[in-house]
Design brief:
By secondary structure, the chain is an alpha/beta fold. Helices cover 39% and strands 17% of the residues. The protein has 13 helices and ten strands. Helix 2 packs across helix 13 and helix 3 packs across helix 4.
């Protein structure tokens, strides 16, 4: 995708002040149109949907819909959850419910969820199908589950990680640790380990295999410059293990069965577990279209045109 075209894509910065937290977002298109709500993945942010927004605009869909891409709490420009307690995926369900309660007052809402965003969207639709007009899952299907035999090990490992984190950051919430300002002089830095945009991009590229242009697009929204140095804005707790995960039996009861029209888009080079779970997906969704597109886990970026075409056909059907 041409970088100059991406930069020229028109959008509006939006803040949603919910009862418990503030979410930042980007709105593409007219606010009076039905909503396509885009939910990003773990450690990504709203800018992971820039390529898809561009492709959707080129298809003329923004004449009929608005696309709202949010930052989850602790990501991008959104507020962090207060305190230093462990985070859990189900927190996002409450965020989404509060947001959907506001959005559905004025317009019907269809959800496009990638990875973690798709996990949350699928679980939310299972519990509140009357609020979701259509559902698009990109490299996601349901909440992650594991055997109950792992529960003790997961709990103790998570708490150990959080205790170490709290000892490293005494009396600092995740918000103040990331955003505090003051007149105190800057301590001497080990410049050999200084965070730079190039190092951050290279690290993400090596970890995920994403093209560097997409790594940079996402990372720039997760960084800020203070005292002429880059630092992370994302909540560091996001990288710590959750203390609890559902079992398959719990997920199966939650997910069965939805009548919401659902488009499941998987990547040829994406997560193999998702392809293996297709028979289960057809039990969970009564109205399911599943497709596979050439690309990796972030195919809504690298294969944005194909994904946008699939979404257009689906939502206008």
């Amino acid at each position: 995708m041409n970088e100059s075209i991406v930069k020229s894509l028109q959008y509006e910065d939006v803040d949603f002040q919910l009862a418990h937290i503030r979410l930042a977002a980007k709105r593409y298109g007219n606010k009076d149109k039905p909503i396509l709500l885009a939910l990003h993945g773990w450690l990504d942010n709203a800018d992971s949907f820039v390529p898809l927004a561009q492709s959707i605009e080129q298809l003329g869909l923004l004449n009929q819909f608005q696309l709202i891409a949010i930052d989850w709490p602790g990501h991008g420009l959104s507020q962090h959850r207060p305190g230093q307690y462990p985070l859990h995926w189900i927190d996002y369900l409450y965020d989404l419910d509060e947001l959907m309660t506001e959005l559905t007052k004025t317009q019907p809402v269809s959800i496009i969820g990638h990875s973690l965003g798709g996990i949350i969207a699928a679980a939310y639709n299972a519990a509140f199908p009357h609020k979701v007009t259509q559902l698009v899952l990109i490299e996601a299907l349901s909440p992650i589950y594991e055997s109950a035999s792992h529960s003790k090990e997961r709990l103790t490992r998570s708490f150990k990680q959080h205790h170490r984190f709290n000892q490293t950051n005494p009396s600092k919430s995740s918000d103040t640790a990331q955003f505090e300002t003051g007149a105190a002089s800057e301590p001497k830095r080990d410049t050999s380990r200084e965070l730079t945009l190039e190092r951050a991009v290279n690290a993400r590229h090596q970890l995920t295999g994403m093209d560097k242009c997409w790594c940079e697009l996402i990372i720039q929204r997760n960084l800020e410059i203070k005292n002429q140095h880059y630092c992370w804005k994302s909540d560091p707790r996001l990288k710590l293990d959750s203390p609890y995960r559902l079992t398959f039996e719990q997920v199966d009861v939650l997910m069965s069965a939805s009548d919401t029209p659902c488009l499941l888009i998987l990547a040829e080079q994406g997560f193999k577990q998702l392809k293996l779970a297709l028979p289960q997906a057809k039990l969970w969704f009564n109205d399911l279209i599943d497709v596979q597109i050439e690309g990796d886990h972030h195919l809504h970026m690298g294969s944005a045109d194909q994904v946008a075409n699939m979404i257009r056909t689906f939502i206008l059907n």
